[in-house]
Amino acid sequence: MLIAGLILFFPLVTIASSDAEHGEGHGDDKDFIIHHLTEMDKIEIPVPTKHGWMKFSLDALQFELFGIDMSITKPVIFMWLAGLVLFLCFTISFRGGRLFGSKFAQLLEVYILFVRDEIVYPNMGEKDGRPLLPFFLTVFFFILACNLLGQIPSGHTATGNINVTAGLAIIAFIMIQGMGIIKNGPIKHFKAMIPSGIPAFVIPIMIPVEIISMFTKPFALCIRLYANMVAGHAVILAFFGLIFMAKSYIIAPLPIGGVLFVSILEVFIAHLQAFIFTILTVLFTSMTMHPSH
Amino acid sequence: MLDLHPGLMIWTIISFVILLYILNKAAWKPILKALDEREKGIKDDINTAKTAREKAESSLEEYRKQLAEAQSEAQKIVAKSREDAERIGEELKAKYQADAEALLEKARKQIDLESQAAINEIRNEVAGLAIVTAEKIIGKALDSEDHRRLVSESLMESPN
Fold first, then answer.
1. Touching check for B30 and chain A: CB below 8 Å?
2. pLDDT at A19 over 60
3. How far apart (Å, rounded) are the C-alpha atoms in residues A291 and B34?
């Protein structure tokens, strides 16, 4: 019910959230950006009432498991929401694998074919790519859905949190190394890290370099996605901040135009980052599966 | 902003794995299967169309060849029948010409014979009449056989 409510109220929420920011803005003008980007423990749902917009605040469900803080925080909720949206989109649009459905289904099919024909097959080949296709499709659509949920007013970008992108990078790391080990066997896999035909004295340097590169690849994936998603939001919030700093409504059209522009750019970046994360994972996996290349 | 929350990482991984499992079961498998089937169907259709076209082309070629053969055959037949007709016509013409000539010859001969007979008859008649006339003039009946001979001799002497 909560999720259904969220989806239903999204168009209305636009006004509410900007109103809400007005309220917050009075107290600490400079901190609201950081606060907005890092707030994890509260989910605020604006609801229209007779007395104007009311904010319903849901606190994170806090609990610990084996000494680790496993609280169901805002990013977790929005990751689940992204998963639910994906599940509903694909099951409703393609009931029983039916193609040529609605226009929305055709749009999704374009995305699927893009991932298959432009990302996975050209870089992995059809033979290796086909069994891994569900994994890469999930990576692509999950990141895309997480990115786009942040574009909805009062939504939150789960991928704008470094822990989420780190989790995704860990998954990518396991995939990259795991597929190499499964495909070539553990011995050949780790041997392949040292390129053949190099002088013996370089090997002591090469081994640490290769081990570092093994970890830097997913680390770069993690930072890239996180930074891109945060940057867009920070710019949007900074534009809104201009209104509060000027303390005038007259200046508003300018920042609003800027916000509109950055929002459109962010929709593009949401797609681009999902694409980049996926294609790099595909490339690294393909490299460990075929080390000679 | 960069605080590390291992719990959130673990939640991300758990959520992703569960999502992967669910979507694989509910979405990717049927969708990818349908896409594969559709592409296979298209490929099959293209192949079928290609073989059908090749077949059509080969049969067209065959028909063309047959048509050309039939045409030359027909031309041959026409030429042969024309030749035959000409030959038969020639033969018939020759035959009828010969027939007509023979007929003409026969008729001519007949005419000759008839005219000869008529002349002879006229001669006899004339001889008879002369005898009768002579009898009447002379009033003496001569041996008709002698007279006839005499008249004939005299007629022979005179030019026809």
1. yes
2. no
3. 33
- The predicted-structure confidence for B99-126, as pLDDT tens digits, reads as follows 999 999 999 999 999 999 998 888 888 8
In sequence order, what are the residues at sequence separation of 6 or more whose Cβ sits closer than 8 angstroms to the Cβ of residue A16?
A46, A48, A53, A55, A153, A154
CB contact under 8 A, B23 and A96: no
Q: Which residue has the tokens 């026969």?
A: B106
State the pLDDT at residue B55.
Answer: 94
Show which of residues 31-60 on chain B sit within 8 Å of chain A, judged by CB atoms.
31-35, 38
Indicate yes or no: CB of B16 within 8 angstroms of CB of A98.
no
Nearest to A147 by CA among A137, A159, A139: A159
Query: CA A139, A142, A146, A152 torsion: positive or negative?
Result: positive
pLDDT band per the 50, 70, 90 thresholds, residue A8: very low
Cβ distance B5 to A141 less than 8 Å, yes or no, reads: no
User: pLDDT class for A257, splitting at 50, 70, 90?
Assistant: confident
Give the count of beta carbons closer than 10 Å to the beta carbon of residue B30.
18
Single out the residue of A2, A140, A139 nearest to residue A78, CA to CA. A2
ipTM at complex level: 0.76
Radius of gyration of chain B (CA): 61
A200-230: b (≥16 Cβ within 10 Å) or e = eeeeeeeeeeeeeebeebbeebbebbbebbb
How far, in Å, CA of A278 to CA of A284, rounded? 10
Residues sharing a CB contact under 8 Å with residue A228, sequence separation 6 or more, in sequence order:
A269, A272, A273
Helix axes B6-23, A74-93, angle to 10 degrees: 10
* Cα(A158)–Cα(B8) distance, integer angstroms: 10
Residue pLDDT, tens place only, A109-134 = 888 888 888 888 888 877 887 888 88
